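stuck on this chain:
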Amino acid sequence: MIVNSARFHISSQSVEGCPAGMKHEFAFIGRSNVGKSSLINMLTGQKSLAMTSSTPGKTMLINHFLINDQWYLVDLPGYGYAQRSRADRDRLLKMIRGYILGRAQMTCLFLLIDGRHKPQANDMEFMRWLGENGVPFCIVFTKLDKLSSSAAKAATAAYCAAILEEWEELPPVFRTSAVDKRGRNEILDYIEQLCRLPVGG
């Protein structure tokens, strides 16, 4: 897929405020500081479409970006940011779950994982929740440019092996870097394939 246009469309505080219509939506989520904004900018070919920050936890709303006037890329708030208040964490969790479970247009959820780290409890718990609720998702390993080729391969393989201790099979897995753009074509091609399916099907 070639991205010819990408523009911010709307921010919403709940699923009820999301755009009307039946365009495919592909949502991106992960722990705070996983490199989500950088990945979104890399995928769309724009340096500042999604706000990047050295301070984790900046995304507080459901952000819709319209791609090629055909489908939405959705930037969801990150989770696992301990410095937020309990009330903020609860509100964001309600927002995230409300969107994921209540948005028929969401075709696939891309779960971002920092490929440098061993499996984190809240990532594994989130995957379990997705599985229990039948949510279609992919795993996107990020920041792999920060590891050597062999170390990146070993780290992601070990992570996948840990997932298979609980799951019968892996969801689709993408290995990426916002710096060297690895994984970009693979993710966009996968989205292009899913866009051929009926929305909400």
